[in-house]
Amino acid sequence: MTLVLIVVLVALMFEYINGFHDTANSIATVVSTKVLTPRQAIILAACTNLVGALWGTAVAKTISTGLVNAAYVNTAVIVSALVGGIVWNLLTWWLALPSSSTHALVGGLCGATMASAADILPAGQSLWSALIWNAPKAGAPWFKGDGLVPKVLVPMISSPILGFVLGFLIMSLLYLLVARWRPTVVAGVFGKLQLVSAGYMGFSHGSNDAQKTMGIIALALVAATASGALSDLPPWLDFLRVPSLGPNSDHIPTWIKVTCALTMAAGTAAGGWRIIRTMGQKMVKLQPIHGFAAETTAATVLMAAQGLGMPVSTTHAISTSIMGVGCAKRFSSLNLPVVHRILWAWVLTLPAAGLVAYGMMRAWIGLGWPVR
After folding, report:
1. Is the pLDDT of residue 280 over 60?
2. Contact, 16 vs 267, CB < 8 A?
3. Cα–Cα distance between 109 and 335 in angstroms, integer?
4. Rounded to 5 degrees, what angle do the CA atoms 330, 335, 339 make?
5. How far is 360 from 338, CA to CA, in rounded Å?
6. What's the rounded mean pLDDT across residues 156-169?
7. What is the reported pLDDT for 26?
8. Largest Cα span, the chain
9. In whole angstroms, what is the distance from residue 346 CA to residue 291 CA?
10. Is the pLDDT of residue 263 over 70?
11. What is the CA 201 to chain-centroid distance, rounded?
C-alpha cells in the first residue's frame, strides 16, 4: 500500500515537473513576440493545458498497455521509470535544453521494465523481449497497432520532420499573403491571431502530455490490484483499486484524469523561463506572424498524433516548427550551435533516462526492497 502511494506521488511530481519543464512549448513564442506578458501567457497556458488534459485517453492507453510487457511491470518498475524521467528532465531544464518529457518517461519505463525482467525471463530470451516492439491489429494499418516502433520510434522521427516542413510551408504561404501589407498591419493582425494559436498550442500540449502520467498511474494501480497489494484497503480508499482498464484498455478513471490535469496546470503556472529563452530568443528571432505559424503547425501535429494514440514530443514538434518558420525567413536566421545542442539532447533522452531507470531498478532489487 505504501509503495503504491509512493508511485502516485512520484507520478504527480513528474507531471508537475513536466508542466514547468514544457511550459516553454506552449508560451515561448507568444512571450518572445511580446503579444502577451509572461504572466498572461502562463495563465493562458495553464487554463488550456487543463482543458486539453481532459480530452481523450488514446495516449494514456498506449503508455499503460502498449509499450512494455505487463508481466514484468510492478510498482517498483513504475517508480524507477518516473525517477529516470525526472532526473533527465531536471538536468535538461538546468542546462536550458528543451528535451522531451515524453521520451524521458518512455525511456525510463523501458529501462526499468528490462531491469525487472532480467532475473525472471525464460532461458534464451533477450531482455528486449520485455518490450513490445510491434503488435499490429488484424486488418488495421500499421500505425493502429501497439508497440515502440509504431507508437514511439516512427513518430519520434516523423513528427519533427513534419513540424519543420509544415512550418516552412505555412510561413512561406503567409509571406505571400502579407507581401503587400504594411508591417504595422501584419504585426497587429497576427498579434491577435497568435492569441488563438497560443491557446491551441496549450490545449494540444495538455491533451498529449498529461495523458502520459494518467497512463502510468493507471498501469501502476492495475498492477497493484492484480498482485493483491491493495487487498487490505479501507473502504474509503476503494477508488484506488483498478482491476482493469476495460475491454479496450482505454477507461482511465475520472479521478486520475482530473488529478493529472490539475497537477500539470499547476506546474505550467510555475513557469520555465530558462527554456523559454532558448526557444523563443536564442534559436531564432520571432515576430507575431512567425509565432502564429509555429504554434499552429506544432499544435496540429500534436492533435493528429494524439488522435492516433502516439505519445509524441511536444518539444520536438514546436522546436522543429520554429526551425522551419525561421528557415522560411532565411536559413541563416537559425542559431546553429543552439540547434546542435538541442538535437544532441533529443538523441540522448531515451537511452539516458532508460539507463537511470535501469540502474535504479537493479539497485532496488539488489537491496531487497518490496517490488509488487
Report:
1. no
2. yes
3. 34
4. 115
5. 32
6. 92
7. 67
8. 72
9. 22
10. yes
11. 13
